[in-house]
Amino acid sequence: MHAYLEGDFTALAELYRRLVPRVRRTVQARIHDPDLVEDVVQQTFLRAHFGRHGFRARAGDTVLSEDAVVAWYLAIARNTAIDGVRSEQRHQRGRVTADDDTRPWPTVETRPHVEDPEQRWLADEQRSATQARVRAAIFDLPASQRDVVVLHKLRGLPMQAVAEQLHVRPGAARVRAHRAYATLAKRLAA
Question: Which among 44, 75, 129, 179 has the fewest CB atoms less than 10 Å away?
Answer without folding.
Answer: 129
